[in-house]
Structure formats: C-alpha cells, structure tokens
Amino acid sequence: MLLRKGIALVIVLVVLGSLETCLAQQKQINRGSFPKGFVFGTAASSYQYEGAVKESGRGMTVWDTFAHSFGKIIDSSNADVAVDQYHLFDEDIKLMKDMGMDAYRFSIAWSRIYPNGSGEINQAGVDHYNNLINALLAAGIEPYVTIYHWDLPQALEDRYNGWLDRQIIKDFATYAETCFQKFGDRVKYWITFNEPHTFTIQGYDLGLQAPGRCSIIGHIVCRAGNSATEPYIVAHNVLISHSIVADIYRRQYKPKQKGLLGLSFDVMWFEPTTNTTKDIEATQRAQDFQLGWFIEPLIFGNYPSSMISRVGSRLPKFTKVESALLKGSLDFVGINHYTTYYANENSSNLLPILLNDSLADSGAVTLPFKYGQPIGDRANSIWLYIVPHGIRSLMNYIKEKYGNPPVIITENGMDDPNDPFVLIKDALKDEKRIKYHNDYLTNLLAAINEDGCNVKGYFVWSLLDNWEWGAGYTSRFGLYFVDYKDKLKRYAKDSVKWFKTFLTTA
Description:
16% strand; eight-stranded parallel beta barrel; alpha/beta; single chain; globular
C-alpha cells in the first residue's frame, strides 16, 4: 500500500511538473514575442464552411457530386449545410474579433461567381463576397482570399474533364481576374491555389478525393483515370494557370490595388529513417515530389531534377515562355503544415507494380513510424502526428533552398474526434490543442528569431469545427465547437481563451 501511495505521489508530481512546464512555456510566448506586424488569423474554405449549396444561383461543384456518391465519405455526410457560414458570417466575424485575430483566410467558390464555370457572372455570388469582405474590414480583420480551394465547377468537369484539359487555364484566368475586378480594391492578399499537391494526388492519383480518378490496381478503386500520367498533367495545368494569373495581376491590377499574390503549399516535413545515404537521398526525393514539384517551377522555372529524371516522358515540359512566366511569380509562400514523417528508400519491387504513380516514381516511402514506434503523439486524424520541431526544420529548409522568401503559415492545427458520447462541456476542454499550438508557435518563433527565417504570419486551421472532406463530420479541427445537433451553435473551446490571452499580451 505504501509503495502504491508512493508511486501515485510520484505520478502526481510528474503530472504537476509537466503542467507547470507547459504553463511556463505558454507564458514565455505571446503576440509581443513575434516581430512587429506579424499576422495572426484563422482559416476556412468555401465548401467546408458555407453550405447553402443551392442558394443564390450557385452552381454544382465536383465536391457536391463526390460527397453525394456512395462510399466516398466516411460518415456518408455532405456539405450541403456545412456550418452555414453563408448565413452566419456576421456571427463568426464577431468570434474572430473577440479573440483578437488580425485576419481571416477564406476561399471564394468559383461556382458562386460563375455557376457554369465560365460565361455569365452570377451577381448574387459577387454580392455575398462583397458583404463578407466589407464586414471583415469593418471589424478590423484583414481578408486573405484563396481563389481556388478544390471546389471546381462540375460544369467544367463535364465539359472537358476540368484540370486535365488546357482549356481550364483560360477559364481559371477569367474567373481569377473577375475576383480582382470585383474585390481587389479591398483584398490585398491573394492565394491562387490551396494545396495543389493534395488535390492532384488525392483527386487524380489515389482517387480518394474529387473528382475521384485513378488507375490503382487496374480500375478496382476508380472507374476512370491514369495514375501514371494524370497527376502530372493536372499539376502542369495548375502551375501554368497560376503563372498567367500572377502575370495578369502584376500588369493590370497590382499597380493600383497594391496587393500581394502567393500560393498555399501542403508540406509535411520528412526526416530520414536512418542516417544512411540511401535514406537521406530518399528523404530529399520525397520532398521533391511534394513541395519541390510545385514550388520549384515558381522559383527556378522548372521541376526538380529528380522528377525530370525519374518520371521521364510522362512529365510535361514547360516552354521557354512558360518557364519565364513561372519563375518569380510568387510574392509570398503559403505553407500548410501539420505533421512530420520518416522517409526511407523504397526497396520493394511490388509498389511500382501495384501503384505505377507518383509515389512509386519518387522511390521513397514515408511513414509516421520507425521500428514500430510513432514519431509523435497522434491527433484524431490517422495521418496527423504531433511533431512541433518539424515546423522549425521546414522553415529552415525553405530558407536555405529557396532564398528565404516571405512565408505565411496559411494552415496549422490539429483535430479531436467528434465523439457523440462526450458532453459539450467536456469537448470544450481541448488542452491537447492548446499544447499543439503553443509548441508549434514556440518552434516557429525560434525559426524566426534564432534562425532568421522570413515568416510573416500564422493562420490556425480552423476557426470552427467543419466538414472535413473524406472524414466528413467525424473530425473537429475548430477553436470553436459547433453543435451539429442544435442549430449549429458555436461554443468557445479552452483554446479560444488561450489564444485570446496570447493575442492580447504584448
């Protein structure tokens, strides 16, 4: 009994010590720790937030189609209502303002502006985003606008297979220019694409997201697609689309509107499984086939050399004119970073046979485990492991490899499960999320102050719990709890209180 009491006392002391350490760390950083002008905000996307999918002239999107297809979403849900921000944005802006956030990153739904993807403008859609932007500015919150966050108008998919056809370049440029014309007098930060690597791989390689194309194991997984070629075609068209839109903005709108234009890349940090040469080289290839694939054409004018040599004739080539337009077309680099994985050389001959895709082409395998041990504590999502030092390593990698460009962390966060058996009052106690943000921000601050990384802002994913793509409503990323059973009421989690203190302390 004495032994048990002694062990219990030690456990209590350890727990208290850990809490004290955590609190001490939290006290060490706040808004005042960061450089003057550093921007803090929250992030969202149109399809995950707006709802109102059949209101005010909005056209259908590939995600409407995908979410309503059998077996595509884990809980068989869809985002027809989502968190209804289309109607509730005034309420949500008050939540941001109360927290002390400087900015809000949201996306415009292409099909609200052009219901058919091109042709006639839908004025009701323009009016909605004007109202949202004006309300944000009235509250002292800077709008950061993503032009494309995955919700391609279904009409363009039906007409010519969307991103697989070069016609998309012209239609996207017209849509983006309409955004500059209608909103650019007030919007000073533009993001052309959100995570092109994600929707390229998930939509056209693995088939797990809209439009659900792939050729993995024949066509057992997907009805149509070619995983060996389509991801590269889609990525190529996306990159050219970005460069043309950047050129239009710089020549015709930036001189008067004085805004900045970037792109948000999804980036895991990778660490070699071992210190062997083959794993170190595989780790670099993994990064080349993730971040390098999309950022290097925009900085250097071409794809990484490892991709050119390994993909061969399946990798489209840029013309000299296209390369010149691509190079230098970013005013800032947006980074969506959540987690870190190990990487090692793919020594199996089976993977290329089964997949015949970009993963096989990279010759690298990335996993969150080494010798059966996880790289960090896991959040709810099966892919999200908490590795705070990864963000510092990633910032230094970008600094060294790409000349220390201005970087904005356009997404960072973690999720809890949507457990129907947990009371709301208990779901609001999100100490794990508080620790996540504290630890990632501490590492980000070190990258800025100690390493000289040129980071300008940090956006939390996400303001609210929301519809999380293939995971549906099973995942809660929000700072605010949304009660899906009671008129979508919003409740502040403890992380809201933490951020409010963080942001109001100089």
